[in-house]
Design a protein that fits this description.
disordered N terminus; 36% strand; 214 residues; two-stranded antiparallel sheet; alpha/beta; single chain; 4 helices
Length: 214
């Protein structure tokens, strides 16, 4: 179920006195808004860290509202699931694309099916996603965006290849999601890459031809 995540914490009326005490749930919702805003490029790494520190120690709704007063409403899905398990054998491709909600953990028991997890527009409300793999065949593709990093230290490859292509680093981009790959991938490939450039972006990146004399 989808809805609007307002900068004002849910559970408090818009007309609630700003000195009203904030609950743990109020703080958590504001933290989610801040992380989504940082993932969308609305906050720098320093701004995110500073606001998170204030949010986690805020005592009143007024303190929380001030942290998101300069942010637009952030469209988000309902609370992310704790665990999503996918089991599939010899069937069509599995895709998570567009504005899907990233869970805390995924379990992939997938054999001879392509899997694509595209994080470019994903709704991120937690800072870590653990993916437990027990897969064989075909290709597992993870499409990143600035602020999304992939940790492959816990991944075991058996007759498989890993291709990790990183986008150019941007110093002010905060890490909003760390994806931990854990388990085994056999007889196939794991591809980690940024989104492909559009034709317009490709044209803008082309070198300008040297001017010729008259």
């Amino acid at each position: 179920m989808s809805g609007e995540m307002s900068p004002t914490p849910k559970g408090a009326d818009l007309g609630s006195p700003p000195e009203l005490r904030a609950s743990h749930a109020d703080r958590d919702r504001v933290v989610d808004v801040l992380r989504i805003a940082a993932g969308d490029g609305l906050l720098t790494s320093d701004e995110l860290d500073e606001r998170l520190e204030v949010a986690l120690s805020a005592r009143t709704l007024g303190e929380l509202s001030a942290l998101t007063a300069d942010l637009p409403n952030v469209s988000a899905e309902a609370d992310a699931k704790d665990v999503v398990r996918i089991e599939q054998v010899h069937s069509g491709a599995i895709e998570r694309v567009g504005r899907w909600v990233v869970p805390r953990r995924m379990e992939l028991a997938v054999y001879w099916c392509d899997v694509t997890l595209d994080f470019t527009e994903a709704v991120i409300t937690h800072d870590t996603l653990r993916i437990d793999l027990e897969t064989a065949g075909k290709t597992l593709t993870l499409i990143t965006r600035p602020g999304v990093v992939i940790d492959t230290d816990g991944l075991r490859l058996v007759h498989s290849k890993l291709k990790y292509r990183r986008a150019p680093a941007e110093p002010e981009t905060p890490v909003v999601l760390r994806v931990e790959l854990v388990g085994q991938k056999a007889h196939g490939r794991v591809v980690v890459r940024p989104p492909r450039r559009t034709f317009g972006q490709w044209l803008l990146r082309r070198p300008t031809p040297p001017a010729t004399g008259a």
